[in-house]
Write a structure and sequence with these properties.
Layout lengths: L9 E5 L14 H18 L9 E12 L9 E10 L3 E10 L4 E13 L10 H9 L7
Antiparallel strand pairs: 1-3, 2-5, 3-4, 4-5
Length: 142
């Protein structure tokens, strides 16, 4: 995935902790998913409306991560999120972890599906999430 990040991407810094490291002074590969989760929650919180309710909440249906370059401590990194696809009950969120100098550490995407919390079945994507995700759609250039 070589997706150009537009100015519509959500960007947040990630503070590395000593506990994120493995024995080789690299960020442990499992922590990348934690960083991406934190960025998604921060983005959802910027919506300013209820994206989780007593009746509906998002679940991760799939997650892909393509490792490109290890993150070595210390480092200044950030996550960029953008919308790849909007569905009736889901949004596919593209992501990248980058260093300040532009080094790409990973890319990939997560499919988040909103489900009815009572029966576990997909339910309509909340309007507030749809509007927020539309703002993160990359420019088509058309």
């Amino acid at each position: 995935m070589n997706h150009p990040i537009e100015s519509t991407a959500f960007r947040t810094p990630i503070a590395l902790r000593w506990s994120d490291l493995d024995a080789f002074n690299h960020v442990n590969n499992a922590r990348y998913f934690t960083f991406l989760e934190q960025a998604r929650i921060e983005w959802f919180e910027t919506i300013g409306e209820a994206w989780v309710t007593d009746d509906a909440a998002p679940v991760v249906a799939s997650a892909t991560l393509n490792f490109k370059h290890p993150i070595e401590y210390p480092a200044a990194v950030f996550v960029e999120l953008f919308t790849e696809k909007l569905g009736n009950s889901s949004v596919v969120i593209g992501h990248r972890i980058l260093a300040e100098d532009g080094t790409l550490h990973c890319d990939g995407h997560v499919a988040a599906v909103w489900v009815d919390r009572h029966n576990g079945r997909p339910t309509a994507l909340p309007d507030c999430v749809r509007r927020a995700a539309q703002r993160l759609l990359p420019a088509t250039g058309a």
